[in-house]
Amino acid sequence: MFIKKDLRKIPKILEDAVDCRTNDGDDDADDIMMANDENGANNKHNNSEAPDAKRTKVLEPLKELRLSRRFQEFQGTVQILCQPEFAPKLTQLKSLNLYDCQISNLEGLGDMFGTASPNLETLNLGRNPLSTIPDDFAKMKSLKNIWMDDCQLNGPLPKALMKLPQLESLRLPHNNITEIVLLEDTVDTFDSEVSSQPNLKLLCLDRNSITDLPTKMKDWVPNLEELLVRHNRLERLGTNVLPSTLRILHISSNQLTSLDDILHWKHPESNDAPLSHCPRLTHIYANSNQLTHIPEGFVTCHSQLQRLVLSHNPPLRQLPQEIWDVLEQNDEGASTACEIL
């Protein structure tokens, strides 16, 4: 669908927006409606055969602000948006798109929108040269969806992103994030700057430089459903790291040698079938790694598994019998619960 770009400058867009302060917006709307009624009455009086004059459209509060690719106006910062006089126009804002604006400094964004826009849910900052996220970013407590793809974030995952309690999806592909730090340096407790994010369902960290997943990950994102960490530097997943709610796991193009960390054994010394830390998994994409084996019972203990992708693992020379059984059924055209590639 083609969306016509608003050619007005940013200050003009905000100046023209409805003032959302108490009663002001309603008064403006009433004035417009009254004026339209008077105009309509006059038109009817002057020309009884003329059709009713069209009523002027009442302006709606600003709920979506699309400002992508306006680098000439932003000049590297967000200060143009952070003028106090614009605050009354932003009260009902739910979505803000600042994609590809060459913004390198977000100072002031959280202070402004954390107060002025208590309903802001979606923020797109993709393709901006952002190396850091300022602390005031965490003041935007209402955020549910964040895009920061193809920026220049480096080092640990910014702490400000880990303080947003309503966050549902966090997309940070194509950066240089190296780790997710959850714990204090010397103790096995959460860092004071990190909060549990129980609403986070999707975490995308594709094409970063992550070598390990944090040991307390399931406490940080206890209800995570989809994890994407393709094209990183993972050598292992970590024992009992992933939350049990996980449904979709993208771990392709890493350096993983085993999927054993997804499993656990009730009696490690026995020959009992393994159990899964993530029994709800429906899709596992583990292609293009260095897997050497697949644990016996891996498919069986994931009863909801619909797709398992294992291609392009050069060291993988043998497969468990249960996988051969599924492959044989698929070759024969039988309907199986799991597709293995």
Q: How does this structure look, described?
A:
The chain has 6 helices and 15 strands. The two termini are 35 Å apart. It is an alpha/beta fold. The chain is 17% helix and 13% strand. The protein has helices spanning 10-16, 24-46, 71-74, 109-116, 217-220, 321-331, and strands spanning 64-66, 95-97, 122-124, 145-147, 154-156, 169-171, 176-179, 202-204, 226-228, 248-250, 263-264, 275-276, 283-285, 307-309, 339-340. Strands 1-2-3-4-6-8-9-10-13-14-15 form an 11-stranded parallel β-sheet. The relative contact order is 0.06.
Tags for this model:
single chain; 341 residues; alpha/beta; 11-stranded parallel sheet; two-stranded parallel sheet; 15 strands; 17% helix; 13% strand; elongated; leucine-rich repeat; Leu-rich_rpt_typical-subtyp; LRR_domain-containing; Phosphoprotein phosphatase; Leu-rich_rpt
Outline the low-pLDDT stretches.
Answer: 23-51
Biggest sheet character? 11 strands, parallel
Separation of termini? 35 Å
Task: Note the overall shape.
Answer: elongated
Global structural class: alpha/beta
Series of secondary-structure elements, N-terminal to C-terminal:
HHEHEHEEEEEEHEEEEEEHE
Give the integer mean of the pLDDT values. Answer: 86
Number of strands: 15
Radius of gyration: 27 Å
Strand order of the main beta sheet, please?
1-2-3-4-6-8-9-10-13-14-15
Protein name: Phosphoprotein phosphatase
Keywords: Leucine-rich repeat, Repeat
Organism: Nitzschia inconspicua
Secondary structure elements and their pairing?
Layout: H1 10-16, H2 24-46, E1 64-66, H3 71-74, E2 95-97, H4 109-116, E3 122-124, E4 145-147, E5 154-156, E6 169-171, E7 176-179, E8 202-204, H5 217-220, E9 226-228, E10 248-250, E11 263-264, E12 275-276, E13 283-285, E14 307-309, H6 321-331, E15 339-340
Parallel strand pairs: 1-2, 2-3, 3-4, 4-6, 5-7, 6-8, 8-9, 9-10, 10-13, 13-14, 14-15
Antiparallel strand pairs: 11-12
